[in-house]
Each structure stands twice: as structure tokens, then as C-alpha cells.
Amino acid sequence: METEMAILKKARQELQQINVEQVLQSLRKNQIDALYVANRQEAVKEILALIPEGSTVGYGGSLTLDELGIKEVLQKGNYKYIDRGRPGISPEEMFTLRRECLLADVFLCSTNALTRDGKLVNIDGVGNRLAALTFGPKKVIVVAGLNKIVDDVEKGLTRIRSHVAPLHARRRGWKVPCAQTGTCMDCRSPDRICNILSVVEFQREKGRLTVVLVGQSLGL
User: Between 120 and 17, whose confidence is greater?
Assistant: First the structure.
């Protein structure tokens, strides 16, 4: 006979699966390819299956990608990996590498929020990630943990401004108000990190955009 805790765990898993299926179906209705994997290891396997060997691969800054370890795998594999993370890169070199990513065969990134009706909500400081997400690379792979799922665009923006941005700024030691208050102050700081908003509602070019939803909490 199942214990109360076992029944509760099962109920949570069932509801989680219902939520996942809803998001996947919504993404596909918006002509965004979508797949679900249970964990980080499966995510890496599926991502690599989407990247032909010999491809030029770029990426947008992402703790989710860091947690997967996918960058190290690409560095060692048969890919033309655009490595923005190597030590000693000057601002000029970083600018050049960011531009190169816009012409990559494949671009990897995460999303700040993923709505139940299949929209990707993001805010950038510089805009290179959002530029590549929306136009440029032939293929874009977006990796997201279950923690990124929100009800709608408004909740996505709230998540970014009250959680993602303050935490990101504080861990980097940036001198912006949200790092001290824990929420957006709509600042005009020279170091402001929330500058460019993007909401991807639909992908007109079939097969260009794929979301890999991972059944764990990843990134911010």
C-alpha cells in the first residue's frame, strides 16, 4: 500500500508531466520544435544530435549551458566552436566573436522565461543573444529547465525583473540598484543590464528554432 508521501510524489510528477506537455504542444503550435528530456545528460545527448559535425557553433552567455557542460563537449568535438570564454579576451575581440556568432550554423542559448502558451521571453544587456535568437544563425537551440516556465509574458517579465536580473547582477558584482534591492528599479545606471526586450511568439522558418526542455531546475 502506498504511503501518503508516495501518493503526493506521484501526484506532483503527474501534474508536472501535464504542464510539460502543455508547454511542448504550445511551442509546436507556434512552429517551434520542442522536445523534453529528463536530465542534463540526456539534454547533452539530444543537443549534440541536432548539431552536424563540422558546424560552426556559437552561444549566448548562459548558466544553463554552463551547468550542462556542453561547451566543453563542443570544444573537444569536431566542430568550429566560437569560444568566447577563453581567458584574456579583450573587449574588441569579444565584440568580434559576438558578431561571428550571428553567422554561425548553430547557436545555443537559454531563455529567461518560457510561457505556457509557448512564448520565449528575454531581456538582454547588449543584445547579441537576442539578435542571434531572432535572426542570423541557421539553427538555434534553446535549452531551458522547468524553473523557466511561467504562466504568461507578464509573469515572465516579472520573473526576469524580480529574480533573474538582480541575482545575475549581484553574482557579477555589477553596480546596479537591483543588485542591492532585489528587484528592478527601472534604473538609468551606466551599467544597466536590462536594455533590450524580446518576445518570440512564433517561428516563421520551420525547423530553425528548437527548445530542449529539461526536467530539472537549471540556470537562474
Answer: 120
Tell me whether residue 219 is in a domain.
no
What CATH number has the domain bearing residue 26? Answer: 3.40.50.10420
Whether 120 maps to a domain, the answer reads yes
Residues 6+ apart with CB under 8 A from 168: 193, 220
- Percentage of residues in the chain with pLDDT exceeding 90? 86
Distances, alpha carbon 92 to alpha carbons 57, 69, 84, 99, 155, in Å: 20, 26, 12, 11, 36
pLDDT one-digit tens code per residue, 94-103: 999 999 999 9
d(CA 31, CA 34): 9
Any domain includes 184: yes
User: Domain span at residue 27?
Assistant: 4-214
Q: How many structural domains compose the chain? A: 1
Distance CA 138, CA 203 (A): 13
CA–CA separation, 35 and 58 (whole Å): 21
